[in-house]
Specification:
Chain lengths: 468, 196
Amino acid sequence: MSKGTLFDKVWDLHAVGILPSGQTQLFIGLHLIHEVTSPQAFAMLRERGLKVIFPERTIATVDHIVPTDNQARPFVDTLAEEMMQALETNCKDNSITFYNIGSGNQGIVHVIAPEQGLTQPGMTIACGDSHTSTHGAFGAIAFGIGTSQVRDVLASQTLALSKLKVRKIEVNGALRPGVYAKDVVLHVIHTLGVKGGVGYAYEYAGSTFENMNMDERMTVCNMSIEGGARCGYVNPDKITYDYLKGKDFAPKDNDWDKAVAWWDSIKSDTDAEYDDVVVFDAADIPPTVTWGITPGQGIGVNQVIPTPEQLPEEDRFIAEEAYHYMDLAPGQSIKGTKIDVCFIGSCTNGRISDLREAAKIAKGRHVAQGVKAFVVPGSERVKKQAEAEGLNTIFTEAGFEWREAGCSMCLAMNPDKLQGRQISASSSNRNFKGRQGSSSGRTLLMSPAMVVAAAVSGEVSDVRELLN
Amino acid sequence: MVSEVKSVSGRGIPLTGDDIDTDRIIPARFLRCVTFDGLGEHAFEDDRAALKGQHAFDQPQFEGAKILVVNRNFGCGSSREHAPQAIAKWGINALIGESFAEIFFGNCVAMGVPCLTADGATIKKLQEILTNNPQASMTINMESMQVQCGDFVAAVSIGEGARNMFVCGTWDACGQLVAQQSQIRATAAKLPYVTW
Ligand code: SF4
């Protein structure tokens, strides 16, 4: 049993009581909702005659279904329009703040809450979306929930949960040039496996994470769920506080000092006890690309696709399925794989510093003939900031399309989709079969800089060869 | 509305494969909806199309099955409750697998659909029996924590908390949670960030 970790402290502070089942009733400090997983939850509330208990602690936005080119209402997709209207009505009827398209605050739910200062250390956060783990970058305990649980949070601001174990994932040292936060998390998932984190919260510790900016920490925490861990976090520090200071919802004046003192108090103790500890050396991490159909099927860009014999026995079944689906052979090098579509965006890598890193590589280069490449900012604020810095011009001059904010081709619930057997180089988080909108489409996950490298050469390439 | 789930009986359906994610269980295009109605017919739609009738969910001998037998890390990926809803609406009342992804498991609990785990050998055996004899009757007993399939009997497990919720009929936590109004407000009042 872990002791003295941030997870333990935040858990205890939010425990309302123990339920007859033995589970803990946990208070949720911030509830985020969006159009996909909330309409059924509101319907369940209505059915049971329940009300939203703390409407001021729920924030809504729309992200999954929004078109990233023509956003005129009503949407061309009538089902999407229906979902949009349901969210608008539910928010209005229940006095919930809704950041709609054009408000200047809309975007992917895991991008907008941090950038507005809603996400803070020591909070518990829930959202009907598995990538809620992102918010752990601030030292919050944040996890994805299903629709029945969205109902529970709306009705009671609490959840029935069993406590998780805590695994410390320590990465030390400086990342090599061309290696980014995305590579770190793909490497960790590859090593520990896609179900390695089931039952655990991941605490990311060590100098590599301590030196990351908040956007990078969010990239790492975001993909905790791909490693099976329902939440992941980084202890808050000066970098966290500097990021938060002055944000719309950050504590102000006297409250600020009180907040910092409290945030410091909830950090993991130096003698905290963990259920498990795993240590990595940052220097061992290469630019990483996935070749298969789970985020754990990653390799260094200069490595070859593993043969079944090179894999642990339990990974062979899914590997066989992956060779077949991806039409990639064991022993084949991943570098040089031809790419049709390049996508930069998502709650993993659609923030301003992701776009800055991508633009650095794109500047002065051009997307290869026949490749469709596009950049989708994670939020309206990210878009505005990128435009103020001229990043959009760099991208469009390089042949990338520059779009409106949303989830876009991360899961293709909007019109942005792969066609047929197309292969994408994608900065998103999932390479599952059919994930990007075509039931036979293929996805290679990588960092935004690596996506640019793929876009300009038309094939999977090593971004390090493009660094000056 | 809440009822005890002490046992689940019916015929079984084997679905082999590790890491079957929620995008495969219900592809994202079917999430464009405001109710869960009608999801059952789209369960595993793309996998079924790819297998051209060979997918277990398309095979007539498994029609009407109540217990789904799966392998490792079933339901990984997104938090969409649409996935277990689609499986339940197809007709499944319980799952047995080597392991389940956490959010998927929690969603199933909240819907009153137990997900039991068993070791790899047991799962293999169950899938074999069902493949050879689709008519075999299965029973999961949540009190003795055993599964019986034809003549074969084996142990299954589930976390103690979840087991209690099924056996005592408290798997729908909503009512219990809402009943704690004053303690909820007291907990909130002690959290500094609630007021700044
Ligand atoms: S960007 Fe992708 S992973 Fe993130 S919330 Fe949207 S659909 Fe989900």
